[in-house]
Automatic annotation (TrEMBL):
UniProt domain X8: residue ranges: 388-473
Keyword Membrane: yes
UniProt-listed Pfam families: Glyco_hydro_17, X8
Compartments (UniProt record): Cell membrane
Keywords: Cell membrane, Disulfide bond, Glycoprotein, Glycosidase, GPI-anchor, Hydrolase, Lipoprotein, Membrane, Plant defense, Signal
Family named by the database record: Belongs to the glycosyl hydrolase 17 family.
Reactions listed under catalytic activity: Hydrolysis of (1->3)-beta-D-glucosidic linkages in (1->3)-beta-D-glucans
GO term, biological process aspect, one: defense response
A GO cellular-component term linked to this record: plasmodesma
Protein name: glucan endo-1,3-beta-D-glucosidase
Annotated EC: 3.2.1.39
Membrane topology, as annotated: Lipid-anchor; GPI-anchor
Amino acid sequence: MSLFTNGMECTSIFFINSFIVKAAMLDMMKLQNWLTSVFFLIVATVSNAEGAFVGVNVGTDVTDLPSASNVIAILKAHQITHVRLYDANEHILEALSNTGIEVIVGVTDEEILGIGESASVAASWITKNVAAYMPSTNITAISVGSEVLTSIPKVAPVLVPAMNHLHQALVASNLNFRVKVSTPLSMDVISRPFPPSTATFNSSWNSTMYQLLQFLKNTNSSYMLNAYPYYGYTRGDGIFPIEYALFQPLSSVKQIVDPNTLFHYNSMFDAMVDATYYAIQALNFNDIPIIVTETGWPSFGGASEQDATIKNAETYNNNLILRVLNGSGPPSQPKIPINTYIYELYNEDKRNGPISEKNWGVFHSNGSSVYHLSFGASNLSIGNSLASFCVAKDDADTDKLQDGLNWACGQGQANCAAIQPGRPCYLPNNLKTHASYAFNDYYQKMHDAGGTCDFDGTAITTTVDPSHGSCIYAGSSNSTIGGRSSSATAFGPVGPFGASLNLQVSSLQYLVSFISVLFAQVLL
Ligand SMILES: *[C@@H]1O[C@H](CO)[C@@H](O)[C@H](O)[C@H]1NC(C)=O
Ligand SMILES: *[C@@H]1O[C@H](CO)[C@@H](O)[C@H](O)[C@H]1NC(C)=O
Ligand SMILES: *[C@@H]1O[C@H](CO)[C@@H](O)[C@H](O)[C@H]1NC(C)=O
Ligand SMILES: *[C@@H]1O[C@H](CO)[C@@H](O)[C@H](O)[C@H]1NC(C)=O
Ligand SMILES: *[C@@H]1O[C@H](CO)[C@@H](O)[C@H](O)[C@H]1NC(C)=O
Ligand SMILES: *[C@@H]1O[C@H](CO)[C@@H](O)[C@H](O)[C@H]1NC(C)=O
Ligand SMILES: *[C@@H]1O[C@H](CO)[C@@H](O)[C@H](O)[C@H]1NC(C)=O
Ligand SMILES: *[C@@H]1O[C@H](CO)[C@@H](O)[C@H](O)[C@H]1NC(C)=O
């Protein structure tokens, strides 16, 4: 499973394609759409299509950071196969060895200057933080800084030189085919993200962007995008329906359509990814895949952050997983899966900024979940199957089921009080539901420590919450709402859609599209 897709050459078709987009004429759009499908057919046969994945960011600004082995246990219990670190934490890198988990290691913002100015500093960085762990720790990429173009613009002149130095050091260690170098950028580098077809990078970064894209193309690396519909929605001041941000169905009066391509955007996430593809194309690069290195939704915030709720976070991230694991790309690049890293594993209580900044995690640092997240969406996944509940199989052998029940409530130390007569989960009084309750209780307590959902083949995991009435199963979102801290000041994972939002929301899609075409021509 590679993060990076090999390149392909489709320049001539691509040129025609982008020419027609600029022509922006309705009757040529059919032709353009046709050409687009031809283009993607070619892409499909050239690139090796692999399953999509959802990984997770592991930020460590946590007061009681779990031990590295506990971090790994939680990743394994949830069958998370891809992680991104913000630095090169030696304990975590060590603990990731021989786990099969693929790792992006981070060059911190502070390290970029030294690496950019000196090839030998870059070489020592690679020796110490990459080569030392390979191959037992499967490092597949290095992310250089975090949104540095927008957060510390003065670093821009050394960014690509730093990436080049790191790449050269990888070449010298013969690791360049296994480890790719890129840099995560925020949506703020794009000046006009909607409609996606007209998106361009803010021209202040022209030369850096050009060098960067050239580097990514030459080294077969991906563009790393941090895409936050949370910010696109909250800063959009009500122009966007929240359903659009949360991957929920849009009513027929709120369809969001790119007037130039007539592509429907079912989610802001897709629109952000596509805007980035189009911005890359506007600089005449056409075969650089995008991976989303960060996206997510905070589960709690301050008084002015009312959209930061457990419900929204749970909805966003679960729908995101379903979206990504369906394996399709955004409308303009349907064959390139949008591999994505959720921000983030743990709530980072030590982060500065608004209250939401401390509440992006899926888990509390003690390992309990903030809300229920199901990775179990798809067979396209390469093992992301967090099916959170463990229940008895329908056709399980009765004797084995009884043995399993006895074991779970005994040696397995499941809390079986709720299935005793008179208690909430006693009814329906049958072996299968009692075993399910006990199996699940054991599984919830023990899976982080390696406990499995098997019970001699009588048990199976499921994403469906088996709770009913007052009988609440362990791990149910109704039983896991935790407390949160409160304090803070100002900043976030730097955001998404910039200031100028030229959005079209309408039932009369063609009429609006036509008006927008005119509008888009004014912008062009
Ligand atoms: C490391 O990840 C790469 C990319 O997916 C994969 O091809 C390779 O087999 C992995 N190596 C190990 C040792 O797991
Ligand atoms: C482009 O970037 C410059 C410098 O960061 C900034 O001042 C300007 O507002 C940006 N333009 C747009 C349209 O985002
Ligand atoms: C950036 O590139 C675009 C497209 O090539 C060009 O139109 C624009 O003038 C350039 N801006 C700067 C500041 O160089
Ligand atoms: C990039 O991919 C091409 C085509 O697969 C290959 O020939 C080239 O050696 C690769 N370059 C690097 C730096 O990985
Ligand atoms: C995958 O998701 C995209 C975007 O929501 C959708 O357009 C497409 O139909 C889905 N594909 C499948 C096979 O479900
Ligand atoms: C995934 O599941 C669907 C429906 O069960 C099936 O049609 C499809 O072939 C499966 N795909 C893979 C890659 O196994
Ligand atoms: C969880 O609680 C909500 C609201 O109290 C309720 O509507 C829902 O049915 C409960 N879910 C389960 C699985 O019990
Ligand atoms: C874990 O931490 C959260 C937040 O501090 C708390 O609400 C929850 O009760 C804790 N869970 C356990 C099992 O200690």
